[in-house]
Amino acid sequence: MVRKSAFVVSLILGFAYVCGPAVFSAQDDRADIRVVVNLVQLSVAVTDKKGNYVTGLRPEDFAVTEDEIPQKIATFAEGDEPTRRLQEIAPSTGKGTGAASVPGPDQASQALVADPKTITGNGLDAITSGANVFVLFDTSNYMYRGFVFAQDAIADFVRSLDNANKIALYSYSRDLSRSASLTTDRSQVLLGVRSTVAGDDAALYNCLLLTVKDAAQYQGRKVIVVFSNGPDNSSVVPPEDVAELAQSTGTVIYMISTREAQLDPVSTAVFARMTAATGGKAYFAKNWREEKQAFSSIRDDLAHLYSFSYYPRANPNRGWRAITVKLVGEKEKKYHIRTRSGYRPLASRFSAENNQPESRPAGSN
């Protein structure tokens, strides 16, 4: 998933996905290019061999590496419990609560390293409280037969989510419709669900890319739940580019598809690969009962995820960075981990005269 089309590069170049100060600068005659790398947030599912969720794990049970560089966990939470800040001692000491102790960053090679004091207080609360859930509903002409049943399943899912979560309702056929903006008001989202109508071809990947970009503007846990009843037949954006942007912005993608989509083996493989890369899951429902079960499974998944974050240690790599999360000791053999596989730092252009960004970075990783 390393290919990147010129089309998507032009869309996302200059779009910073984390908040905080830029920490890398490459100067030319006209401008600086700064790579913004700050708090990296992970949503991690841990299950046993039977697929049951494993609860009660602690920060010291996890080992996180980025490009094989050990990282120190800064915040940690399980499910809907309050988030704890663990990085109370400067990371250069290699001491304190969190993952295995690692040496401090090399001050002589401060290529890409974050300030652990960037996000505190209310800013930390905004990053770690609840989840921002974007429901992307297929309203293409594939949906004619099961439209009402799909609306019912989405409405039940919206009602069932914890009140800490914010929800947005988008729909798509050839174009994206933002039916309800991100809100805690369930009635507003439900009204958006009931106001959708079916028709036109399906441009799933085009519209999913726009949804990922919208989600990336928000701090904290970002989740997109896609309900699709058929393959994509209108997009110009390849799914690999959508998946990479989702990984780089820390957005988890879940996909629920019906039997119509499963009849297309290419779509089946793409849906499974895309969701796995972001730490989500793909479901294929044969009927409306299985659609509701899939939504229920996603709700349970969100309630059992471990959420933790780290400030990346010194790393000169400005390309794709591989993230590995493992369990420590015997737990590694007993349990399975699901999370995103990495991210790509996105560049932001700065003016050489005043050293200020031409467009203010938005969102968080």
Question: How are the SSEs ordered, and which strands pair?
Answer:
Elements: H1 6-12, E1 26-27, E2 31-35, E3 40-47, E4 62-66, E5 69-71, E6 73-78, E7 84-85, H2 122-128, E8 131-138, H3 147-160, E9 166-172, E10 176-183, H4 186-194, H5 204-215, E11 221-228, H6 239-248, E12 251-258, H7 259-262, H8 265-278, E13 282-285, H9 288-304, E14 306-310, E15 321-327, H10 331-334, E16 336-338, E17 342-343, E18 347-351
Parallel strand pairs: 8-9, 8-11, 11-12, 12-13
Antiparallel strand pairs: 1-2, 2-18, 3-14, 3-16, 4-5, 4-15, 6-7, 6-14, 9-10, 15-17
Give keywords:
single chain, 365 residues, alpha+beta, Rossmann fold, six-stranded mixed sheet, five-stranded antiparallel sheet, 26% strand, globular
Describe this entry's structure for a reader.
The protein is α+β, with helices and mostly antiparallel strands and 365 residues long. It has two domains: 20-115 and 308-351, no CATH class; 128-304, von Willebrand factor, type A domain (Rossmann fold). It has ten helices and 18 strands. Residues 1-29, 88-128 and 349-364 have low confidence and may be disordered.
Helix content: 25-40%
Q: Summarize the main sheet.
A: 6 strands, mixed
Structural class by sheet pairing and helices:
alpha+beta
CATH topology of the largest domain: Rossmann fold
In total, the number of strands is: 18
Q: Average pLDDT across residues?
A: 77
Cα Rg: 20 Å
Secondary structure tally, helices: 10
Strand order of the largest sheet: 10-9-8-11-12-13
Number of domains: 2
The protein's oligomeric status is single chain
CATH superfamily of the largest domain, by name, is: von Willebrand factor, type A domain
